[in-house]
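Entry 14. Ran structure prediction on the chain below.
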Amino acid sequence: MKYQFELIVGVIVVLFIGMFLYTTSINPDAEFEGSDGVGSAVISELTGVAEDDITPLIPQWEPPSGEIESGLFALQAAFGGIVLGLGFGYLLGQRKLNQN
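Output, structure tokens:
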């Protein structure tokens, strides 16, 4: 099968979209929360410790303004796009080399 990897990725994407649509159809008024808040709430329920008393082992740096935070996010997205582009370009080049 020539396009086995592409077929597997396509099936995974369709399953992910289906899972997303299924979970949003169960409770359409639900808001998406970060895993940090949900995890802290579960830990505080299990241990009986107040959520404010739980501190992370490695303190997180918070940027001084929202502009810096969004700039860092854009820089991270650009870096990830470059890495993906280089990886796909390398694979495409190797495929073309093997065909010749």
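The mean pLDDT is 84. Will compare against last week's run tomorrow.
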